[in-house]
Design brief:
By secondary structure, the protein is mainly alpha-helical. It is built from 53 helices and no strands. Part of the cohesin complex which is composed of a heterodimer between a SMC1 protein (SMC1A or SMC1B) and SMC3, which are attached via their hinge domain, and RAD21 which link them at their heads, and one STAG protein.
Length: 1223
């Protein structure tokens, strides 16, 4: 027992190490190496080991016999070799060979481990040295631990020496190598750890030398400031810990089985007892208890020495690895780990600021909640962290949010479950743009709806589907997202596809006379149409598709089957539905979309189905005659276009039906046209004519109406209305549409046929006449007519442009270019009605929907104008009216203007750059004519910065455009204005032009500097704008030094911490005060630029306890702060549930005396910074309650209570300060 106490003391030293000393020193206590520390220990009791193995052989893993065979085989090989052969390097595997085997992944790891075990059994010091060098090599360090270092140095000294020799050129190391190499190396390293432990689990794991020495080294490396050491050793230590947990579980099962055997035999009558067998069993139990104690000690050492510190490491990969392995431990050994003392780490990590760490934490919790026997132990954890998990459904990382929703689904299935208000956090996510998150929320919603149905004891499938659809309708109505039914259907498609494909139940509910309410019928029709679209197209709605997905053969087969089922069911049902809801515009407009998803060829497959075609055509014509709403007429037009397609054999019947409809509408309009032109029509005649013209205009978009000769009548009507000033939008807007569609269909017919020259000239005259009418409409004080005229002008000018006739030389006669007056009118329209902050149709009480509609209309108008520029209808200089509003209206039109800028660069890079410069010149000239203010100049500079970014990163490609831009700008700056008294009034434009200088190459800078000297008068060389522009043309380093010299600016104080500052101190420069303390304290004096390899935060020096007022987190006792005590962990439920209260922590002893300037500073901000740095000094301590308090405080401070679904921030206070100061 004394030996065990000595071993436990060494492990306690391993756990309670201090962080004092050099930042590069391993913080492990420099105890003697294991070979010296265990010299007094008794050798393992081999007879007991054999007894334990004999009694519990049935409990060994499947490959344990193979392991024993390998051990015996290695022993026989060792015995057969002469003693002198162990020193031959040829017979022992080297560290480099092990490393190559791990990296390649092609070598059997069992063979590699067996060869190393053979060498270890021959000479355990040499074998351990090989293993140590393999670990060092795996860290990316090419230094070697020699035998002299191994014999004479402690672990901390070895690590310190390796750190000094870690002078690799690249900051990469094996675990940070991108690509497939990382995958192979990690897999090989993990396999090596697994095979090593399994090969030693019955022998060498208990030799009290190999694993204690290995774990001590890994613990020291895991606290190194070198990221490669810390990352690799932590990952390896966590994998070894996982395998040790498995061994501990096996040994525990063996001990329990042996104990049961002993109890059973001991309970026999005295005469039946086998005393010898009882002694063997007792010896086996004692041996297993010793083994279990040794494994538990090693596990405890790894947990406290590595995990407790590294689960909050600065590197997110290390934190994620720790949490991932913790989840495995909790599932593998719940008796030892599944308690509040270990679960709290998962709860704290839910607040981690890095999404990969949160993701591993949530996945670990999923593994626990999947086990029903663990639910009881998780009740306290669930109640404590449920609020945090609910807030994480809005995590900024969608993958984390998806896993959180899946986790909450598992919690929902427990007895406690979630309350309805808690489920309300998840329901809105079915409308999320991320499809994975929406599908997870849909699965949650589907599970909830089915649980409600199961509580109602519904038996038949039809009844279940009907109940599901009715509950879904209620949810859809209550969610108040009536225009987003497609997103709800897409979210439920994978989890409730059978219910959403039950067309029979849906149509039965709709055709019932007293089944659903009016609102429920509308919701069901919308959901049904969304489901039809989803099944027929097999594509997600807009905004949820991640690129173009190619359907597999299986998906295509399912799509075709669904489409046939839809067609077969709805061909007879659709006329009935249209007849029932023909008077309701909102419902019938949705139902009219159904045939667009049919397999329309089925109409001609049998005479019986042709009857339903006639019924459908009759219903469509009846609906057109009943309605004048735009949505209904547009839906009819789409259906007319689809049914009239020449690829269907029944298209002639559709043509006949719709031609008869157009005949009636044309006759109605012609009846009133003469009265309209004469101005004698009354209100009824005006209404009837406008209604007929609306229907004709709607059908014109889907059917050729040139045969009805309506163009002349519509054009005369427009001219008469404009001349008389009777601007009736109900009549003028459809008249504009009819005329424009006539010209569009005429162009299509001209392309598809061979018209005569006279016909082409007549068509061109019609185009010219219509453009004049539209130009007159642009100045009308009637918004609908004005907007419609502008949009139609953009379309027709593009259709009859030079680029459109390029592929048809015979149609060059039809090319129509806009006149100068029309160009100016369109540009004025853009400035007055698109780039305008004041809209007469908007007021303070306008609904958001109206604002969105108006914005969408403006975007369409701007896009139409930009297309005219891109396709050469308008000159590139016309784009200046667009470019100069890039910055001011970036929120509304930024994407359109950015695309236009990029397209113009493809057309002519130089001319595009000159257009950019011209737009800035126009803004500058406007600024001079108005009241000049610095704010106006700053706005133009902001625009210049944004436009400069459009030149991209390929500076060689942008050379000529940039030089041309600068030359135009210089010429403009020194251009004399005849009516200006001041000489060179435009010289300030050089300030704006300097925003483009950072994109210039050095040779171009010199060329432009010479050009500036030649153009600039001598008197203007000393002007501040000229000096500023000249500095922008100089090389960056020289320009920066000259700027400091001219402006007299001081170098920023080194005492002020800079954001995102590297911790390197270049040679020849003075280090900052914050860095000086740890550099001077370090025991390593090297010129090596170490920060490229470091990652953890350096401890900031703190003031002595007597010089600072103690805070709530510091101890007010009189104990010596230089002798830290281990902080007890809360192991009871009371301590855990009491809740993250701040423990009293004694201040850390300062490493070095602070400079006097720091001690005497009374600045409030500096005191606040020092208080945060004190937190940093405690960041690596084993004060887990303090870390929990920080997490809780951050979660509360970063949350927004007024937002019900706002995701709380995941930033740690200490870590965020760490990022700003020491990254």
């Amino acid at each position: 027992m004394a030996d065990d106490d000595q071993f436990m003391d060494s492990l306690e030293d391993l756990a309670d190490f201090s962080d004092s000393g050099s930042d590069y020193e391993a913080t492990l206590q420099p105890a003697k190496r294991s070979k010296r520390a265990v010299t007094g220990l008794k050798p393992p009791k081999r007879p007991k080991q054999r007894a334990a193995s004999r009694v519990s052989s049935s409990l060994l893993p499947p490959d344990s016999s193979l392991q024993q065979q390998r051990h015996s085989r290695g022993t026989s090989r060792q015995a057969s070799r002469p003693v002198g052969s162990v020193n031959k390097p040829v017979q022992d595997i080297s560290a480099e060979e092990i490393y190559d085997a791990v990296c390649s992944g092609k070598t059997a790891m069992v063979t590699v481990v067996d060869e190393w075990l053979d060498s270890y059994k021959r000479n355990r010091e040499a074998g351990l040295l090989v293993l140590i060098n393999f670990i060092v090599r795996s860290c990316g360090c090419k230094a070697v631990v020699t035998r002299e270092m191994f014999d004479m140095m402690q672990n901390a000294e070895i690590i310190s020496t390796l750190t000094k020799e870690f002078n690799e050129d690249s900051v990469n190391y094996p675990l940070s190598t991108p690509g497939s190499q990382l995958k192979h190396f990690k897999a090989g390293l993990f396999e090596f750890a697994r095979v090593l432990v399994r090969s030693c689990q019955n022998s060498l794991i208990y030799d009290e030398y190999l694993f204690p020495s290995l774990l001590a080294l890994l613990t020291g490396l895991s606290d190194s400031q070198v990221r490669a050491f810390r990352h690799t050793s932590t990952l390896l230590a966590m994998k070894l810990m996982t395998r040790l947990v498995e061994v501990a579980t096996i040994v525990s099962v063996q001990r329990q089985t042996t104990q049961r055997q002993y109890d059973m035999k001991n309970n026999n009558m005295a005469r039946y007892r086998d005393t010898e067998q009882l002694e063997e069993l007792q010896a086996s139990i004692s041996e297993l208890q010793e083994n279990e104690a040794q494994v538990s000690s090693m596990m405890n050492a790894l947990f406290r020495g590595v995990f407790v510190h590294r689960y909050r490491d600065r590197l997110p990969e290390i934190r994620a690895a720790c949490i991932e392995e913790l989840g495995i431990w909790l599932k593998t050994d719940p008796e030892d780990f599944l308690n509040d003392g270990c679960l709290k780490y998962l709860g704290w990590t839910l607040h981690d600021k890095q999404s990969p760490v949160r993701l591993q934490c949530v996945r670990a919790l999923q593994g626990l909640y999947q086990e029903k026997e663990f639910i009881g132990r998780l009740e306290l954890f669930t109640s404590r962290f449920k609020e945090r998990m609910l807030s994480m459904v809005l995590d900024k990382d969608s993958d984390v949010a998806v896993e959180v929703v899946n986790l909450l689904l598992l919690i929902q299935k427990t007895e406690e479950g979630l309350r309805e208000e808690e489920c309300g956090h998840i329901y809105p996510l079915v409308y999320a743009s991320h499809r994975g998150l929406a599908s997870a929320a849909g699965l949650f919603l589907c599970s909830k709806l089915r649980s409600v149905i199961s509580s109602e004891n519904v038996e038949t499938d039809k009844s279940v589907h009907a109940s599901f659809i009715q509950i879904l309708i209620s949810f859809y109505i209550q969610s108040e997202f009536h225009e987003h039914g497609a997103y709800l259907v897409d979210s439920l498609w994978s989890s409730a596809g059978s219910e959403l494909r039950d067309w029979e139940t849906m149509t039965a509910l709709l055709l019932q006379d007293c089944g659903l309410s009016y609102e429920e019928e509308g919701a069901l029709i919308e959901l049904m149409m969304c489901a039809i679209r989803q099944a027929a197209q097999a594509t997600p709605p807009v905004g949820r598709s991640q690129g173009k997905k190619v359907l597999s053969m299986k998906d295509k087969k399912i799509q075709e089957q669904d489409r046939r089922r839809i067609t077969t069911h709805f061909i007879p049902q659709l006329p009935q539905l249209l007849a029932k809801y023909s008077a309701d515009s909102s419902k019938v407009s949705l139902l009219l979309k159904a045939p667009l998803y049919f397999d329309l060829e089925m109409y001609s497959s049998s005479p019986k189905l042709e009857k339903y075609l006639d019924l459908l055509l009759s219903q469509v014509c009846s609906i057109v005659e009943k309605h004048t709403e735009v949505t209904v007429l547009e839906a009819c037009a789409h259906l007319v276009n689809a049914l009239s397609s020449d690829r269907y054999t029944f298209s002639s019947r559709a043509h006949l039906a719709f031609s008869q409809l157009l005949d009636g509408l044309t006759d109605c309009f012609s009846t009133y046209i003469s009265d309209l032109l004469q101005g004698t029509a009354d209100d009824d005649e005006l209404y009837n004519a406008a209604s007929a013209l609306k229907r004709i205009a709607a059908l014109s978009s889907g059917k050729d109406v040139t045969g009805w000769k309506l163009f002349d009548s519509c054009l005369e009507l427009l001219k008469s209305r404009i001349e008389s000033g009777e601007l009736d939008k109900e009549l003028m807007v459809p008249a504009l549409k009819c005329s424009a569609f006539h010209l569009m269909w005429a162009k299509v017919n001209a392309v598809n046929s061979t018209p005569s020259e006279a016909e082409l000239k007549h068509l061109k005259r019609e185009v010219r006449s219509f453009c004049r009418v539209c130009q007159s409409c642009l100045s009308l004080n009637q918004a609908e007519t004005r907007d419609q005229a502008f949009e139609l002008l953009c379309d027709l000018l593009l259709l009859y442009s030079t680029s459109a006739a390029r592929s048809e030389p015979a149609l060059q006669t039809l090319v129509h270019l806009p006149s100068d007056s029309l160009r100016s009118e369109m540009a004025a329209f853009l400035l007055d009605y698109v780039f305008s902050d004041t809209d007469p149709e908007l007021n303070v009480e306008s609904e958001e929907e109206v604002r969105i509609t108006l914005l969408q209309r403006k975007r369409n108008q701007l896009a139409g104008y930009c297309k005219l520029v891109i396709y050469g209808v308008l000159d590139l200089t016309a784009a200046t009216d667009v470019f100069k509003h890039y910055s001011k209206y970036f929120k509304d039109f930024g994407d359109i203007i950015k695309e236009t800028v990029s397209k113009t660069k493809l057309i002519s890079p130089v001319q595009s750059a000159k257009t950019v410069c011209l737009s800035l010149q126009q803004l500058f000239s406007e600024m001079l004519t108005e009241n000049h203010s610095p704010q106006d100049l700053n706005e133009i500079r902001v625009l210049a910065k944004r436009l400069a970014m459009s030149f991209g990163i390929d500076l060689h490609r942008a050379r000529k455009p940039l030089v041309a831009l600068h030359m135009d700008g210089i010429n403009f700056a020194f251009r004399d204005q005849p009516d200006e008294e001041e000489q060179h009034p435009n010289v300030t434009f050089l300030v704006i032009l300097s925003e483009f200088s950072f994109k210039l190459l050095p040779q171009d800078r010199a060329q432009l500097a010479a050009f500036l000297e030649s153009e600039c008068p001598d008197a203007a060389l000393s002007c501040p704008p000229v000096r500023m522009y000249r500095r922008s043309l100089e090389v960056r380093s020289a320009s920066r030094a000259r700027e400091h010299a001219e402006e007299g600016s001081d170098v920023p104080s080194l005492d002020t911490p800079a954001t995102k500052r590297r911790r390197t101190t270049p040679q020849g420069s003075a280090p900052s005060t914050g860095n000086r303390s740890w550099l001077d304290n370090s025991s390593i004096h090297s010129s090596l630029d170490t920060p490229a390899l470091t990652s953890t935060a350096q401890r900031q020096p703190t003031k002595p306890p007597t010089s600072r007022k103690p805070s709530a987190a510091e101890s007010d006792s009189g104990s010596d702060p230089t002798e830290p005590e281990p902080e007890p962990e809360p192991e009871s439920e009371d301590e855990f549930s009491a809740g993250y209260q701040l423990r009293k922590v004694r201040p850390v002893k300062p490493r070095r005396r602070q400079p006097s300037s720091r001690q005497t500073s009374s600045n409030v901000d500096q005191q606040d910074l020092n208080s945060h740095l004190t937190l940093l000094s405690l960041f690596e301590d084993e004060d887990e309650e303090r870390a929990e308090a920080e997490n809780e405080e951050n979660a509360k401070n970063d949350s927004e209570p007024e937002s019900e679904y706002t995701l709380r921030s995941t930033h740690h206070t200490s870590t965020s300060i760490l990022d700003e100061l020491f990254d």
